[in-house]
Amino acid sequence: MNNKNVLTFTRLLHDLYVIQKLNLYDSFEIMKNSPCCRKNKRLRLSAKDISQSLREGSLLSTSLKKCRYIKFDNTYISFIEFSQVSGNLSESISYLKDREERSQEVFNNLLSALIYPVFVFILAIAVLFLFFFYGSFLNSTDFFTVDFIKKIALDFLVIFFMALFFLYLLIKNLKENKVYEAFLASGFLIKSGVNVSNSLDYALLILGPASKLGQIFKRIKEKLEFGMDFPTAFRELTLIPAFSAIENLFFLCGQGRGRADLFIKAAELLKIQDDKKRNFCLLLVEPVFIGLTGVFLLTLVMNFFMPVFMNTGLLQAF
User: Are 75 and 205 in contact (CB under 8 A)?
Assistant: First the structure.
């Protein structure tokens, strides 16, 4: 879900705490007076509340949970909690900044992809109203019958639902791949010293424990805890066509190979696969909607002008 406030907040925290190496309290004191926060009331109040909470001795994760002005998801807070225990807060903030930027990029791509279909749809509606206005102006009641209106309405609904179905497929392919994020998070955590089993707990937070993929990862975690090897434990996931690209990667992994690299490479493979699907979908947007609009307009013209030609005797002249 798009949340520009979380992205801006994380970027500011990254710049002050990670890049400039200020302590947390000073970071938030400076943040609340920054130009971004002066222009954004929610950011300013959030920085002020968190600064006050830190001064009173609360942990950053606790302060984020209590924040009333910006909503931080469970994964975000869990990473902060983990980093407070492991002592690598800087690395976690850097990861969360990258994560929020990826999420914003996905949202921007989706928004850009929807602009053209929406424009074409509005154009089709405008042409439809123009035809009806033209018919009313001519007082052409002979062909403005109930049957004619039903035909136009039916054609419009068919084209409309075809367009909605294509938009559904487009959004499905453009939205964030949670398995990619789960693998990337697990790889980051393993590199930070977390064991594989515990890293999958964070993957479950991203996927949602009750989701179908969450249940698969839960079973994978249990299999690994019982000592099962990686290829066998992940077999259920790799049998799903969308994730078959990583099957060979897990099959070739050896006991001496870095587990973090394995998860990160799996994430990279899924990203390459997703980028190909997204680019293909984006290429289809223009021709598909031009085609749908063309079919609708052709149907409209035929239904509208054929009775006119018949009534005026133009066809009979031939």
Answer: yes
Considering the entire predicted model, what is its pTM?
0.74
Q: Which residues of 188-216 are buried (b: 16+ CB within 10 A; e: fewer)?
A: bbbbbebebeebbbbbbbbbeeeeebbeb
Nearest of 207, 15, 200, 208 to residue 97 by alpha carbon = 15
Of the candidates 128, 70, 130, the one whose C-alpha atom is nearest the C-alpha of residue 100 is: 70
Task: Answer for the pair 193, 183: CB distance below 8 angstroms, yes or no.
Answer: no
3-state secondary structure of 88: coil
Residue with tokens 């390459």: 272
**Token pair 């980028």 in the structure block, residue:** 275
Is residue 279 within 8 A of residue 106, CB to CB? The reply is no
Q: Tell me: the pLDDT tens digits for 293-304?
A: 777 777 766 766
The mean per-residue pLDDT over the stretch 230-240 comes to 88
Contact 270, 183 (CB under 8 A): yes
User: What is the end-to-end Cα distance of the chain in Å, rounded?
Assistant: 61
* CA pair distance 3, 5, nearest whole angstrom: 5
Residue 208, Ramachandran bin (φ over 0: left; ψ between -120 and 50: alpha; else beta): left
Q: What is the CA radius of gyration of the chain?
A: 28
Picking from 269, 262, 273, the residue whose alpha carbon sits closest to that of residue 233 is: 262
